Amino acid sequence: PDLLRRVLDPKEKLDGTRPEDYGLPQGERLNEVITQSWNRLRKHWAEFRAAATSLPEGEAGTGLTNDRWSLPLLRELGFGLLPTSAGPEVGGRSYAISRLFGPVPVHLVGCGLSLDRRAAGQRGAAAANPHGLVQEFLNRSPAHLWAIVSNGLRLRVLRDNQALSRQSFLEFDLEAMFAGEVYSDFVLLWLMAHATRFAPRDGDRPETCWLGACRSNHADGAWRESGPQVFQEPAAEDAAGKASSTFREVAEASEHAPCSATATVTLPADTPGHATA
Asked: Cis peptide before 228, with omega less than 30 degrees from 0?
């Protein structure tokens, strides 16, 4: 989608994409910080995948996934420690959402669980699939507009979506990204899913966050109402350029499962944070 390409292009100078908008101290450069995060997370990923091989078949692995991978990933994205939550309530119903970052639900489950299927006996996946649980909460709570849900292998950014028959979210395939060392897609993950993108900029109004501004100002970009929205170009083969298919925007009528469309974006050669390691 056009917005995603513009976020990655340093020539665009979009509002909210300066280093200080990401909470960086004066003098720090985005490309250096993103590269440092990437190098640290590659080590976390290797340790997590090695430990996950010992999980018994059918085991959710929630503790291992969160401790070894999902929480370190979110710390690199500026979310801090993210202690567990008892679960928020709306209209007398409690939602087994594992964590909250201010007004943003952050629901983390194990790598042995699907985001789109229920799992009996697993908190946060028993009554409804993890994605559906968080989406229902967003739709019912007027104070919450954005959320993150992840099983360590995929991370999705969700928004309030009253069209219950239509899924709308941005998904990052973390497994493909890190196993394939697709650094350019990690840049997009860092820029789009950093904690500063979700923080309200005007009091406690979640619609004033940078993601909300992106949605309002770029109606032809991510999360557009009529879909599917897919931009495709031939995948580049060199490591310098350019991205792949480890992320996708979904905006398609579907009640249970995401669509199969893949967003493939070609990055400018001077993308911020271009890999040097």
From this structure: yes
HEC secondary structure over 142-201: CCCCEEEEECCCEEEEEECCCCCCEEEEEEEEHHHHHHCCCHHHHHHHHHHHCHHHCCCC
Q: What is the pLDDT of residues 165-222, one digit of tens each?
A: 566 789 999 999 999 999 999 999 999 999 999 988 777 777 768 787 665 554 444 4
Helices (H), the chain: 2-8, 30-52, 62-65, 71-76, 130-140, 174-179, 183-193, 210-217
- Is 194 exposed, middle or buried, given 0-12, 13-18 or 19+ CB atoms closer than 10 A? buried
44-72 core/surface letters (b: 16 or more CB in 10 A; e: else): bbeebbeebeeeeeeebbbebbbebbbbb
User: Which tokens belong to 134?
Assistant: 């968080």
Report the predicted TM-score, pTM, of the whole model to 2 decimal places.
0.79
End-to-end CA distance of the chain: 28
Whole-angstrom distance, CA of residue 239 vs CA of residue 210: 30
Amino acid making up residue 254: S
99-101: strand order across its sheet: 99-101, 104-108, 146-150, 154-159, 166-173, 247-253
